[in-house]
């Protein structure tokens, strides 16, 4: 399994409202979905999932987050990374930045969104490979890996029934066993994230 292609788009996604935590407090990853199907009235409502970028997602949260009923982000970028359909990653927040992605997991977890609605279709093989790699590096650091539904009181189909979490975790455990234990900073370096 090769390294991920990670684009640092933090500057373009920065909204001025980020809470910083000591990176050593990060102990989990939470996988999410984001898709044009989320809100057909959004700026990327007509943009195909394969064209979603970290910058576009961040702009949507800045413009619609605070006004949207039930919004918990306050307009802030919630995800550390967006995994595109091609398996590349847009890093939207620094790893020490706390995004509002999952209640009770914001402080300790990195929110990783995947472009697509996995209630309607399966993720691309490239996205699954990226999820396996991120999960494996998280396991090497001793972190937990969850889907958003696993940490919610009431599931909402995130990332969705067609998300292969069991397959991802099986492969991630195999890779982590070979790669061995590492520190949080090393896991982030292996993923390609800026702290």
What can you tell me about this protein's structure?
With 195 residues, the protein is of the alpha/beta class. It has one domain: 3-Layer(aba) Sandwich (Lysozyme-like). 30% of the residues lie in helices and 16% in strands. It has six helices and eight strands; from the N terminus they run βαββαββββαβααα. The strands form two sheets. The chain has a six-stranded mixed beta sheet, sandwiched between helices. It has a two-stranded antiparallel sheet with strand order 2-6. Strand 4 and strand 5 form a beta hairpin. It is globular and about 40 Å long.
Q: How much helix is in the residues?
A: 25-40%
CATH class category label: Alpha Beta
Oligomer type:
single chain
Task: Report the average pLDDT across residues.
Answer: 87
Q: Can you tell me the CATH architecture?
A: 3-Layer(aba) Sandwich
Q: Which regions have little confidence, pLDDT < 50, spanning 5+ residues?
A: none
Strand order of the largest sheet: 1-5-4-7-3-8
**Could you give the distance between the termini?**
23 Å
What's the number of helices? Answer: 6
Shape: globular
CATH superfamily: Peptidoglycan recognition protein-like
């Amino acid at each position: 399994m090769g390294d991920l292609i990670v684009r640092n788009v933090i500057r373009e996604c920065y909204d001025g409202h980020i809470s910083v935590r000591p990176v050593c407090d990060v102990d989990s990853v939470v996988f999410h979905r984001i898709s044009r199907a989320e809100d057909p009235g959004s700026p990327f409502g007509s943009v195909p999932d394969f064209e979603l970028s970290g910058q576009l997602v961040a702009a949507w949260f800045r413009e619609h987050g605070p006004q949207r009923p039930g919004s918990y982000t306050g307009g802030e970028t919630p995800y550390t990374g967006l995994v595109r359909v091609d398996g590349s990653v847009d890093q939207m927040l620094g790893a020490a930045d706390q995004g509002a992605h999952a209640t009770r997991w914001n402080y300790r977890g990195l929110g990783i969104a995947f472009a697509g609605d996995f209630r309607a279709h399966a993720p691309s093989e490239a996205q699954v490979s990226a999820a396996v790699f991120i999960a494996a590096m998280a396991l090497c650091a001793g972190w937990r890996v969850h889907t958003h539904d696993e940490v919610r009181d009431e599931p909402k189909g995130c990332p969705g029934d067609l998300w292969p979490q069991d397959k991802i975790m099986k492969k991630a455990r195999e890779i982590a066993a070979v790669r061995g234990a590492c520190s949080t900073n090393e896991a982030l370096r292996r993923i390609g994230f800026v702290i």
